[in-house]
Amino acid sequence: MQQSHNLSPQAHPKVIATIPCFNTERSIGDVVSRTGKYVDQVIIIDDGSGDKTGRKARATGAMVISHGVNRGYGEAIKSCFEAGKANGADILVTLDGDGQHDPDEIQKLIAPILNREADIVIGSRFLDKQVNIPRYRRFGIKVITFLFNFGSKVKVQDAQSGYRAYSRQALNAISATRADMSISVETLIQARAAGFRIMEVATSCRYHPHSSTKNPVIHGLGVAFSVVRLRLKILVDKSTRGR
User: Fold this and answer.
1) Domain 15-241 is of which CATH architecture?
2) How far is CA 2 from CA 62, 77, 103, 109, in A?
C-alpha cells in the first residue's frame, strides 16, 4: 500500500477495500488488481452472482464472501461494513465492481481521513463538471440529494455515490438497515445525526450499459420515498429523546 506523504513514518492505518458485486466477471479482475495497489486488503461481496465473479476475484487475490443468493445492494453494503470491522479496518473504502469507479483515485478519497480532516469521504460525481452522467441518472441523483440536504446545515452534492471512505469510528457507529440503494443515504443520515464530518472529493465515473437492470424511474422514486422516511425517523427520534 502506498502511504500518504502527510503521515508520520510511524503511522500505518489498515485500509481495506470492499467491493459489492453481482455478475461482474467482465470487470472484477481488473478492479481487484488495480485496487490492491492502494490498500492492504481487498474483500469482494459476491451477492449471488450467476457468473464467474467470485472465481475471478479469488484468482486476482481478493477475499470473497458469498451471499449464495442475490439479496440486494443494501445487504451487500452491510456485508461490506461487517467484513471491514471483522478484518480490522482503520479505513474502509467501498467501490463498485463493474468498473464505474477508478481505483487510482483511492488515495485522493482516503487522504482527508488520513489527515484527520473528515470521518466520511464521498467520491462525488458533481465536483468535476467533465463527468458524463446520463440525464435521467443526474436528475434522480439530484432529487435524492436535495431530499438529503433539505433543511440541514450539512449538505453534499452527491448523496448517492457508492465510492466512499469511512474512518473506523464512523464505521463502528453506523447501523444501516436498508436492503436497497437507499442505504447510501441512510448511512449519511446516521453519520450526520451523530456529528461525523462528511467531506466530498471529485472522482470520475464511467457508466456501462450493463451496470443496472432496474427501471430508473421506479428505482429513483423508491429511493426518494425511503430517504423521506429515514429523515422523518431521525426527526422523531430526536423529538422523543428531547422529552
Assistant:
1) Alpha-Beta Complex (3.90)
2) 18, 25, 13, 13
